[in-house]
Amino acid sequence: MPVAIITGASKGLGRALAAALAGRGWDLVVDARSAGPLEEAARELRATGARVVALPGDVADGGHRAALVAAARELGGLDLLVNNASVLGAAPLVRLAEHSLDGLRAALEVNVVAPLGLVQEALPLLRVRAGAGAAILNISSDAAVEAYETWGGYGASKAALDQLSAVLAVEEPELRVWWVDPGDMRTDLYAAAVPADDDSGRPLPATVVPALLRLLDGPVAGGRYAAAELLDGVR
User: Fold this and answer.
1) What pLDDT, in 10s, does the model give residues 8-26?
2) Which of 32, 131, 165, 227 is the least buried, fewest Cβ under 10 Å from its Cβ?
3) What are the Cα distances from residue 135, in Å, to 132, 205, 212?
4) What is the CATH topology of the domain spanning 3-232?
5) pLDDT in tens, 175-205
6) What is the spatial order of strands in the sheet that 52-56 belongs to?
7) Cα–Cα distance between 100 and 125 in angstroms, integer?
8) Taking the domains of the chain in order of start, what are their residue ranges?
9) CA dist 106 → 41, 86, 90, 154 (Å)
């Protein structure tokens, strides 16, 4: 069975993607910072028959990243690494003039440094499966390319992740490397970012999953994509 590591998988897009992969027969290594919600998600995933290793922890911790990759190795290897875990750096979001520098450092650590650290840990396993289509999927944001007021810190971290992904795609041409803007979603992250906003009309994360599955299913070249444009090819 193929094996995936998905970070930030206790809720939102990470949990929705994990459920879709488990339903397709994938085995999973999942993480989140909160043990309770992660174990709840893992129980649902195991109900599909998937083997699931749930490791609570912080992706900014190198030891935790090593444990995630070790768990994938125990499951038989690694076919897909999904860097989905993110932090805002300031919640609610603020203008750059008031943005905490410690908050920005935290966003860069979790949204940029940690994904690279996990890629570095995982590359030996991914390279083994390169001929079978092994892939890295980094979850980006439109804030990486658009200048939205108050989204400067978070957007800067996602812009850095985009550039890291682009270089990685050049340096590891045998792997498929994608970085994807999922678009607007109704998530806890967005609610924390803009608590005064009514997000009831925003789509649920599960609506984005078909776009991500299209990457896995089709001959889609590595690169940056918006989920909306991928979904245009699904509908």
Assistant:
1) 999 999 999 999 999 999 9
2) 131
3) 9, 21, 12
4) Rossmann fold (3.40.50)
5) 999 999 999 888 888 888 888 888 788 889 9
6) 52-56, 27-32, 3-6, 80-83, 135-139, 176-181, 223-226
7) 38
8) 3-232
9) 26, 10, 9, 10
